[in-house]
Specification:
The protein is an alpha/beta fold. Helices cover about 35% and strands about 20% of the residues. β1 and β2 form a beta hairpin.
Length: about 210
């Protein structure tokens, strides 16, 4: 798998036919990770103009929209129904509709739903446009005091200790800064596993 970014030019697609500009667009919109004032002005403009918001949790996104004074049609799109939503979204895009994809907090697809939808929408030749904003892993990395020239985002580790330690062992020789997501109630267990696999001299920063 390869993703490349051309500085100042955004993301370049190397597959899929180009559709006409008047046809539908899927916007992947980053939302606040704690402070509602972190929503960008551009994200607000997109959420205001789209015909539909595909949300990980419509109740959660509903509270954000209420804060913004917006009333929009929403569709639930989460891990358990994502595949079943693809055809509906492709139909809307073919009709020239504008759709925003949001997760509960931060940038969609980063350990959140949306990969299947984005993959299929791009394969169908529709435009997918990122609306940048808050991302928990980047925010945490920026204040951790750890090297940032190279980092590896490993997402969520297995919930069970044996699987977690096995996954950490696979990363033992990795020289880049490792970034994980973890549930609050497993933080202590994770710290114990980090010491067991990497040793007590490893530098660790936890950010909530």
């Amino acid at each position: 798998m390869l993703l490349f970014f051309i500085n100042g030019s955004g993301c370049m697609s190397v597959s899929g036919r180009v559709r006409q500009e008047e046809e539908g667009v899927l916007y992947v919109v980053a939302t606040p990770i704690g402070n509602l004032d972190d929503l960008s002005e551009r994200a607000l403009q997109i959420l205001t103009k789209v015909d539909l918001i595909a949300a990980e949790d419509t109740r959660h996104t509903g509270r954000l929209l209420q804060h913004l004074g917006l009333s929009k049609q929403m569709m639930a799109l989460h891990d358990h129904n994502e595949r079943g939503r693809v055809e509906k979204l492709l139909t809307l895009l073919a009709e020239g509709r504008q759709v925003a994809l949001v997760s509960d907090a931060g940038t969609p697809l980063i350990s959140d739903p949306g990969y299947i939808v984005v993959r299929e929408v791009r394969a169908a030749g529709f435009q997918v446009s990122p609306i940048p904003g808050a991302c928990a892993l980047v925010a945490a990395l920026s204040v951790a005091g750890l090297p940032t020239d190279r980092f590896l985002f490993a997402g969520f580790l297995p919930a069970k200790r044996s699987g977690r330690r096995s996954a950490l062992a696979d990363l033992e020789r990795e020289s880049a800064t490792l970034v994980f997501y973890e549930s609050p109630h497993r933080i202590i267990d994770l710290m114990e596993d980090l010491v067991a696999v990497f040793g007590s001299r490893s530098r660790v920063c936890a950010w909530a």
